[in-house]
Design goal:
Length: 872
């Protein structure tokens, strides 16, 4: 607490200059009469456009803030009973030099113009509609006053562009059914418009918004004279049909793996407007067959890996359901932890069948989602509401034995529920909110290791003052899981908790418990605008906190203090367009008041005049102890670490561009060294074709890599070894955009990770200051490898004391997706997909490249045809 108070005093004592007062610009629109109309062809030549004036005087936002742009822009806005219309005139003295690159939706390449619309006028959220000169659309949902831009949001809207002798023009039609607003007789919406002038990488805006301001949406100008708007209760249905062929290597005598499977499936997605600002989205038997595969990864620390959501139903409006409770600007506070992690729904089954001799099982890869619905939106009174309900099917495995079949449940029927609410106060400078989630399972006896029920909840608030320059925020969360004694014991002993740790006197495994409750939260104070910014606070996870039934949490039993201080430029220097430098520090403890981590970091970035970016940082951690490295053993002193990282990215406007990033972690007594280098090479030979290759090579040399836990003479033996792990991957992406609504995209990733273990040892004094005093090496007379099994004779008496399997590995994987996508009318699409997966364990004696080339397994291929049609 003393550290927190001193940090606040220090950071708030930094002198700051008062922000300039910037008046709000106002645009007065007009209603189109019944005898007038606007044809969306990009020409801006209809009589209706004469009902309103052009608004111009855009001002440069970057790199030379508050100066005149190289080329000026004009904007007009109209509306009728069903639509909002926006027109742009983007002047250009040399129209032949306009860059009209094609890209995927949300590619944001080439010259473009956009409008942001805060139709709630809550000064926090907005929809962003971007149109490139080539006709490619981009749309993002802006939340948290510009802190988050969600490009997975895909509303229905229409747009065209045209290049002429004065530059280029654009027309946009946004159906009012795609916008959310109240029922006031006269509306006032927030608006902002941005133009990208590609040749000089200049951004100009309609409403001046300083780069060092506290937010984005709160600085918007205003759109007025929207009168008697009739709420458009949205109603959309989108049925789909999909057929697929899967081919793979046939397994002898396995009736479920004969070499190919053919499937036909159908389902329905829908959207119903309850009011103009509150909608219900639902899905019945959703299909996610065209979703790109997750990148390959291996975790040696025992913790789960976070993968972002990619499924369309769950990513739409995900900002409303988001409840990250431990994130901070310092980046050292478990930023992925969230009460709702939608990938828990429809995951691979938890159970695995009991198989005997001659048994073959048809095991599903995922759990079928029977249906899901969510009710979400924001009212004119400032209430943000989100409710999600989903039911995942009971999954059974069919087991065949010489023609006789039986079934075994591997995943129970499960109900998932999420509710989220927030209320704005104080002219939208303050909000309070809450969240509640539940998971309920109909458990059969063989799955009693799962929780019968899980309940989590939280409260959050944020208050801002002095034109949102300063803020204070907090959230608290709780969890309660219930089930059999087996389930709760497993939770207590899981990698996230480890109540059985031998030196944790404040923890104890209770085998009779049938429930477990915990808390967590975050308290922070900061300054969000100006050249100088800061944030300081504290976060905690109690030992009993458990979120992983429907949330995401890696580690409990932690509380920490953090601080972040930053200085950033707003005016270009002689050779720099912009720069920023940051300082962070943290101190982390467990609930036994053991200091487990102390770290100091300095990092920064520079944007050069040639539009290259350079970044780098150094980090020093004089104290690092792990409660988890020995999987239930005592705290392990992993040493003092120094690491640095650096990177460079060339001008992303060039047809040939590249990036190079490098990082190196080093323990000061050589207990471990970790090195990684990654590169990105992108070539765009034409406006329609782009090829990107992103190779990564990493080395992990750790002398205290956990292997197993065993015993000797009634004493635990925590056996570790030195691992030399090398990992190589080089994802390839090819995008060929035939037209903005017709594209062919390929993604493929060869991946290999090889780990060789040696120098086996057991821990003797886990917290010793000196690295060599923490363990005892096994001699050649104490350990031997017998056909892939290590046998230990610790007292060299000729009797084996314990044994374990050889942990060396060479994992090889190839994953790819080839997708032809045609949006034949807005919102209605056809997909033709070829997915391939080839995973195998290779020869540990092969090199990385040799291991890739020696993988001769027959790949799994999926050929899929999917068609959707959106009824509006």
């Amino acid at each position: 607490m003393r550290t927190i108070i001193l940090s606040i005093i220090l950071l708030t004592s930094i002198s700051i200059s008062a922000q300039d007062f910037i008046p709000k610009r106002i645009y007065n629109t007009n209603h189109i009469g019944t005898n007038e109309s606007v044809k969306i062809d990009g020409l801006v030549n209809e009589e209706a456009w004469n009902l309103v004036e052009w608004s111009t005087d855009y001002i440069q936002w970057s790199p030379n803030e508050n100066t005149q742009p190289i080329e000026q822009t004009k904007m007009k806005i109209l509306y009728d009973d069903k639509n909002l219309y926006v027109a742009f005139r983007c002047y250009d003295k040399d129209p032949k030099e306009i860059v009209n690159r094609l890209s995927r939706r949300d590619g944001f390449d080439g010259d473009w113009v956009e409008i942001n619309i805060d139709s709630y006028h809550d000064l926090r959220t907005a929809g962003s509609y971007t149109l490139s000169v080539s006709g490619v659309k981009g749309d993002e949902y802006i939340s948290n006053n510009g802190a988050f831009w969600d490009n997975t949001w895909n509303p229905i809207w229409y747009a065209k562009t045209n290049i002429d002798e004065e530059g280029w023009t654009a027309e946009i039609r946004i159906p009012l059914s795609q916008l959310r607003f109240g029922k006031s007789e006269e509306q006032v919406w927030g608006i902002q418009s941005t133009r990208r002038y590609f040749r000089t990488e200049e951004r100009s805006v309609w409403q001046r918004s300083p780069q060092n301001t506290a937010g984005w949406v709160s600085d918007f100008g205003e759109l007025r004279d929207l009168k008697n708007l009739k709420p458009q209760k949205q109603f959309e249905l989108q049925p789909y049909i999909v057929t697929s062929l899967e081919t793979y290597k046939a397994e002898p005598n396995n009736p479920y793996r004969d070499g190919n499977d053919v499937k036909l499936n159908a389902g329905l997605d829908g959207k119903i407007g309850i009011t103009n600002d509150l909608t219900v989205d639902f899905t019945i038997n959703p299909d996610f067959g065209q979703v790109e595969a997750d990148p390959s990864a291996i975790a040696l620390d025992g913790f789960q890996i976070f993968f972002p959501e990619q499924r369309p139903f769950f990513i739409e409006n995900k900002n409303i359901f988001d409840y990250k409770f431990a994130s901070s600007k310092s980046g050292n506070t478990f930023g992925f932890d969230n009460l709702f992690y939608s990938r828990r729904i429809g995951r691979a089954p938890h159970g695995y069948p009991t198989l005997g001799e001659n048994d073959f099982a048809d095991i599903p890869d995922i759990t079928k989602i029977l249906g899901a619905a969510k009710f979400s939106g924001k009212t004119k009174n400032g209430w943000s509401i989100g409710v999600l309900e989903s039911v995942a099917a009971k999954e059974k495995v069919t087991i065949s034995n010489l023609g006789n079949e039986r079934e075994e449940v591997v995943e129970p029927l499960t109900n998932y529920f999420v509710s989220r609410i927030q209320k704005d106060f104080n002219n939208n400078n303050t909000y309070f909110g809450g969240v509640l989630t539940s998971t309920n399972r109909d458990l059969p006896e063989n799955l009693d290791f799962l929780h019968k029920s899980a309940l989590t909840g939280g409260l959050d608030f944020k208050h801002q003052w002095k034109n949102r320059m300063y803020y204070v925020g907090s959230n608290v969360v709780f969890s309660n899981v219930a089930g059999s004694t087996n389930a709760i014991t497993n939770t207590q002993q899981s990698i996230s908790h480890l109540f059985q740790r031998v030196d944790a006197s404040y923890l104890d495994v209770d085998p009779n418990k049938t429930s477990l409750s915990g808390t967590g939260g975050n308290l922070q104070f900061g300054k969000a605008s100006g050249n100088w910014r800061f944030e300081t606070g504290a976060t905690w996870h109690s030992p009993e906190l458990e979120l992983n039934d429907i949330g995401f949490m890696r580690q409990a039993d932690d509380y920490r203090h953090y601080a972040w201080l930053s200085y950033g430029s707003t005016k270009p220097l002689k050779k720099l367009r912009a720069y920023q430098i940051n300082y962070t520090h943290l101190a982390a403890f467990d609930f036994g008041n053991n200091l487990n981590n102390l770290g100091f970091n300095v990092n920064g970035w520079m944007n050069l005049n040639n539009n290259w970016f350079i970044n780098g940082g150094v980090n020093y951690q004089p104290v690092i102890f792990s409660n988890y490295a020995l999987r239930g053993g005592p705290r392990l002193n992993t040493g003092k670490e120094f690491n640095y990282r650096n990177g460079i990215t060339t001008d992303n406007r060039k047809k040939l561009r590249f990036s190079l990033n490098h990082s190196f972690n080093w323990e000061l007594e050589n207990a471990y060294k970790q090195f990684q280098v990654s590169a990105g090479i992108t070539y765009q030979p034409t406006n329609a074709l782009q090829v990107s290759l992103s190779p990564t090579y990493g080395v992990n040399d750790d002398k205290l890599q956990y292997v197993t836990t065993d015993g000797f003479n009634d004493e635990a033996r925590y056996i570790n070894a030195q691992i030399n792990q090398k990992t190589l991957s080089f994802p390839l992406r090819i995008d060929y955009i035939i037209k903005p609504n017709l594209s062919v995209q390929f993604w493929g990733q060869p991946y290999i990770s090889k780990g060789i273990y040696n120098n086996y040892k057991y821990i003797t004094n886990s917290t010793a200051d000196n690295f060599k005093n923490r363990f005892e090496l096994y001699s050649n007379s104490q350990i031997s490898n017998n056909n892939g099994t290590y046998e230990i004779d610790e007292n060299v008496d000729g009797t084996m004391d314990n044994s374990f399997g050889q942990p060396d590995f060479s994992f090889i994987q190839w994953r790819s997706n080839l997708v032809l996508r045609w949006e034949y009318i807005p919102g209605s699409e056809v997909y033709l997909v070829w997915s391939q997966d080839n995973s195998a364990f290779g020869n540990i004696n092969d090199g990385l490249i040799e291991g890739l080339s020696n993988n001769t397994n027959k790949p799994q291929n999926i050929f899929l045809l999917k068609a959707t049609y959106r009824f509006m």
